[in-house]
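Thread: Modeling a multi-component assembly for a lab meeting

Hi all, long-time lurker, first post. My supervisor asked me to bring a structural picture of a complex we are working on to next week's group meeting, and I have zero experience with this. I have the sequence lines for every component (1495 residues in total). Could someone generate the structure of the whole assembly? Inputs are pasted exactly as I received them:
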Amino acid sequence: MPLLNPPRGDRIYWKSVDELQADSSPLAERQREFAEPLPWQAGAAPAAPGLSRRDLLTLMGFSLTAANLACSRAPVEKAIPFLNKPEELTPGVANWYATTCGGCSAGCPLLVKTRDGRPIKIEGNPDSPRFGGGTCAAGQATVLSLYDEDRLRGPLWIGQPTSWDAIDAWIVPRVSAALAREGGVALLSGPVLSPTTRELIAGWADLHPSFQHVVYEPRSLSAVRRAHEQAYGAAVVPHFRFDRARVIVGIEADFLGTWLSPVEFTHHYARHRVPDAPGFVSLHVQFESGLSLTGANADRRVPITPSQRGLVALALLRALRLEARLEPLVPEPPAAAVDRRQIEAIAKELWLARGESLLVSGAPEVSTQVLVAAANDLLGNVGRTLELDRPSLQSQADDAAVERLIQSMDRGDIHVLIVHGVNPVYDHPESARFVRAVEKVALSLSLSDRLDETAACLHGVCPDHHFLEAWNDAEPLASVYSLAQPTIAPLFDTRAAQESLLTWIGGPSDEKADYRTVLRDHWRRNIHPQQTRYHELDELWDRTLQAGVLDLSGASAREVASGDFEDDLPAAAQRALEHFREGQANQTARLHELHLYESVALRDGRQANNPWLQELPDPITKLTWGNCASISPALAASQDLADGDVVALVHGRTRLELPVLVQPGQQEHTISVPVGYGRTRGKVAGRLGTNAYPMAPLRDGLRGAARIGVALEKTGRREALATTQTHHSMEGRPIVREATLAEYRLNPAAGNEERGDQATLWKEHPEADHLWGLAIDLSTCTGCSACVVACQAENNVPVVGKDEVRRGREMHWIRLDRYYAGGAENPDTVFQPMMCQHCNNAPCETVCPVLATVHSSDGLNQQIYNRCVGTRYCENNCPYKVRRFNWFNYAHNARFDYDMNSALGTMVLNPDVVVRSRGVMEKCSLCVQRIQAAKLTAKQQGRPLVDGDAQTACQQACPAQAIVFGDFKDPRSRLAHLRTDARHYHVLAELGTRPNVGYLSKIRNRPGGMR
Amino acid sequence: MRPRRALRRPIPLRAPPGERQKGSESRPSPLRPEWVDGQPTLAQITDEVARPLSGVPGAGWFACFAASGLAFLIGATCVSYQIATGIGTWGLNKSVGWAFDITNFVFWIGIGHAGTLISAILLLFRQKWRTSINRSAEAMTIFAVMCAALFPLIHMGRPWLAFWMMPFPNTRGPLWVNFRSPLVWDVFAINTYLTISLVFWYLGMIPDFAALRDRAIGKVKKLAYRLASLGWNGSHRTWHRYEMACLILAGLATPLVLSVHSIVSMDFATSVLSGWHTTIFPPYFVAGAVYSGFGMVLTLLIITRRVMNLERYITLHHLDRMAKIMLLTGSIVAFAYATEFFTAWYSGNPYERATFLNRAFGPYAWAFWTMVACNVFMPQLLWRQRVRRSVPLLFAISILVNVGMWFERFVIIVTSLHRGYLPSSWVMYKPTVIEVGTLIGSFGLFFTCFLLFIRFLPMIAMWEIRGLVGAKAAVRAEEEPAGA
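Re: Modeling a multi-component assembly
Sure thing. I ran the full set together rather than chain by chain. Output:
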């Protein structure tokens, strides 16, 4: 046996004399098995170029194994059922959990549908009397943000992944040290809806004088709070009750689209928009610069410049005081600024509806808000249509405090900065100043769930859960509570923000921070005693967790009523006048006023990385994947601009380059630009559109949303706009039918005289128990587009991206057609949700060569993806153009790197609906999977289906309840009633398609004296 | 010189039907011109027609072949890319589901119509002038139908499932095609047309294959022509049955001239779309098809008679006759345009009116007016004999006819789709490079096939020409002694 190791000692063994004497090389060397040193032996020579024998053997062995492996069968992946089935989890059966939306600070109660442990769909909680069962588009899309690729997988320290223990070990002593000193720790957050968290923060502030909490919002209602502080001594945002308002006057407040609590407001507003509404039909007048969703729904809309807002409030207040035979107190506004006759007519309507009227303004000037509050007070609305004693807690920002914080950071007074849920580096107007100030903070931490613009500037990022993974509670309106519970275990190594704060700053107990315990403890101490219904905390907790909402608003702490108003009105009026004169002075042929607004899809931009929202067409501009500068047709004509011309908006050193969009209804001297775009970080959001926040002024410690004296410069470039609708007139076709309320009262079929339903020689189509259909009330539909995203989530509708939208290939199964009527300066706007009309005599069905689209026995026009060969004949022959073709594979295709290209993103897909492959046609199925589920449930329970068992996703999401789904064969169904309504009609009925989807004509409340 | 067996055949005494009984009509007259110039002998005819098949083709042929082959390759690349990636590589969108694809389809189907018209209808009407052009027109038909059939195939989202368009017993349950769908009618119409055209074309070539077989020198060539000639022996009985078969096939093919394009037009006519939903479409489309078919025949023959030195057989008289047919069908087409507009106005249907106003004055007005200029105004030039007999002018006109007819289909399809019933879905359509490449590729395929055809097959029906000339020679032989 050869010697593997050189023998110890100096004894050398030899086997023969030959060996001993054979050659001159030392015997020890010859006795080694391998001529060259083994690679692992010390002193091995560097490998010679080329293959050594051992390398060759290694490679051969590897190749052989690899070849064998490659030739063997792929491993069989078996779907194995649970051995121990988790309780409450049945594969294929959805579980629903009640929680609270974290999409914005409105805090709508939600029901979340989970399948196999994954939340896949968000719905409003119908048990909430305040918010209703609807949602908004942004809320619907939050479920996709849960599965966002950009979410952090764990904590980061200076951009490097780290562990919670390590980062806590670094942070805790520094925070403790800072707390011990003066002015040490600042928490910068958005509005805190959670009463428990508010209590924690208040506790810290009490305990540590050096701890301060500053609330920041990119679009704050600081002015509203300050005006009410001045007038009533309470810095609150009132709770507006649109359900009680007979006359609504809005001054630049998009309360149906983006402002404060749009779902709740739409829910309430829509009740009194139908002509046969209980009690009254509301009258809505809107003063605004750009055409907003709210303005589009108003009965009368008046375009004004941003600097005119105060004057409108002033003029209204003066007219109201005159109407009330009081001393005017405020001067008359210049005749050129407001149309006095119009204002007087509105004031008359308001005065007639004293106590049942509502002035609401989102203008960020205290003077305007004071005048508005004074008018509401004069009208006796306080305590009726706006509640100050039960205020809204949805907006708590204090712009002045933010400014003070930045200054103290800049002075080096802040040692620890914790940023939670806000992104000032992106959305602060002077973000460079903020960044400079942050650099002087010794320890800056972000609780953001992603590396956003702000988090990237800070030292550590300690990612918070997504709200669908977290425990929490919310009090969006005083004494209206809801709970939030996790619907899935945290996907990543994240930690609740409150737990992070408790770990660093210290909690009520020394135990390891557990926010759920804190939450329950808060409810035990504070909320349980407020009610008498549930004796035990457990019962209260379980019931609330199950129902999601707890309304204790009956018990009010203090009453504020009309007449308590105290403020210096002449001073406010003076400021409003000054503001207007300043605006006038800066208005020339070259200089314009810039109006910043939030778009319905992106709001303030926090969900900009959500592809569903990026692809959601703006209800007004119909633009996707970017923002634009809306200019009036008159300005476009005078400057020779057309859609897509890129212009620069210049003010001082700030310069925004944007494509223009000629927007009917845009105020002539005002340019409107949506914020929320132009993010520099985010896989989806990055480099889409232009960030308009730098244009927002900071003035008197208040953050504005309009800029005067902005120059418009042409750049000569063009950019194709990704709009989903390029023609805006109905061309005189009776597609959306409308009448005024007066006409309706004379003849309920006004505007709908020609129903167009023709006699048919054909046998009626289906002969089954059901005949499904929809009725959509155009009087209540506000165009909010929640249905579009809801449908996308429910039916796995793919996102196609900017370029494909430009080519006219968006895939939405339901769209909101928006038409203008009347002059381009201030047209009437109508919205019409349009989806497959499920025609009984469907033109698509006759032309399909392979019978891939057929009629079901219960009236559905069905698309059979498996059978479709993709001739697109059905698309051509569809008069409603609702069919959508899969031009490419949209799932698992790097070209469409949105939600369906990753394992994480595809977790949001609804397993009940197939993901379509390329080359097939698709369209609205009337949520056939939901119908089937409802049928099965009814069958299991041994009862017939009743109206409301099955709801389509669009119907469910609609905050205005404009969409009604049902069974025409059920004579008691709402649908069957609506079909006999005088306002009911079918679009393009004259073609004889006999659709199962009908519309109810739009009725506008337009009193004669209002013009 | 090698003896030629072909000359021993009894053709000079037996002219094809139509020629024999009407010898008196063959006298030269301005109304009944000589259809073959220069009174060639029968041997000369065979020689001249068969010459290109034996020698190496000239530089002109090679240049044309290289160009068309390149075009074909471009098309093949585009189609491969499109099938691998998706229909999204085309410019179609949510409202315009068809554009270049079906435009090209209808265009090529239309081109195909001249062949059948010439070979079947003119045969039944005993039009002698068809003899020297019918073979190449038939070949053109077949290649055009091939090009046309390509487009319904590749325009599908999932072309690998195209066989689902065929009704065949299958294991997918009682799953059948939709017999109400005009696309299924198309499948039958095109397949029938292609089959009949192929059989007719081949049958027409059998006597010529026999002649080539007899002339062929190489062994392979001889074998190939022998197989192709199906043992033709030139006996009286063979000729008799052959002529009967030709007549029967002509009778069968005649209705197809009308049916195929009528059915293609029903793709549009049976829809609900304004601009498509028109009862005038079947006759209008047939007239348009013949118009464009003759345009293409003219284009091809003007090139071929020059390149292959066949001016003697394809004379100015032929060109003149074809121009007259174009004048006739072009006028029918113009009348159809006018009727469409009248109907749109007279019906009072606002959607129909809007569609036609949009056609004439909308964003695609340039396409519409191109179509009108090419199909309505330009054929009016053909009223003048000088134009009909000017080869360069006719060549230009023949090309413009096809430009116009391509735009006609484009206008019908795209302008009706891009602005439909609901203005919210009004969009613009813009073709992509891939679509243009596919159109170029279809021309490449067509011309490649045609160039191969004139290289390897007799592009003029030798036996028919010989019959024509032979009959005249017999008449002359009879008349000469009498005059002497």
